[in-house]
Amino acid sequence: MTNGHTSMDIDDDDELLYEVDVELRRTPQSTYLFQYPIRPHYRSYDETTFASARIKEKHSLVEMDLLIDSQSTNYYAARGKQFADSTNNENGRQYFNSDRMDKQTIASTISSNGDHYFVCLFDNQNRRLVLCPLKSIIQLRPQFDYIDTPSSTSGGANAKDSNFIDDEAYGSDGEQSGSESEENKPEPIASLVTMKFAKKESDYHKKKRLQSYSYYRQMRDDERWQDLVCIMNPHSFEAQRIREEFLAKDNQSISS
Length: 256
Hints:
The protein is an alpha+beta fold. The protein has a domain at 21-149 and 205-247. The chain is built from 7 helices and 10 strands. The strands form 2 sheets. A 6-stranded mixed beta sheet has the order 2-8-5-4-3-9, with no helix packed on it. Strand 6 and strand 7 form a beta hairpin. The longest helix is centred in the N-terminal third of the chain and has 12 residues, at 77-88. The two termini are 15 Å apart.
């Protein structure tokens, strides 16, 4: 190790302190570097509780659900309930786990190839440096899907849903009267149907289609999520166990 000096700057009389073996370890699982660009360094996620996490490994997409303490004195209960009411009713699915906004999702927005980067651990006991290549470098930022829902941007629960039935046109039992429905029943209208036959795609256009962003987005959306287990505290027992397994000498490695 030269500490940033080139070979021309090294004095031949410098004392060599020690030498270490360097091992390149290729693990069966992919290794990623997570970055949090807008998270202050003094507020790390080490002690944070995550409810769930998932990944689309082929496209390096990651989502992590961070639990929010809705009982905290700093929590705005009225607004949290408003977000939950508008979001949980959207598409009939339960976005939050309670009647309040109780989680925040952080997701990858930018990922870059990590082929030229490595994560390393120094094995002090055996005096060796173990390197593992990165698959990707992922940047995670908060997502605001609970704000982007139509119900929260169009008036919330007071907005009239287009799927609701107009009570003025229907009786109290939800059915139209027979005479009114017969009178207002539209006459069938014949329509002209035009049939189109798809042309055979040339190799050039196929190549362009496969390189397009719309095709990439379709493939990204079609990939299924895989569940992950979050171990955020580097000092936890589970984190220590993973490090020991990584440094185990019986793992297959390439010495260099």
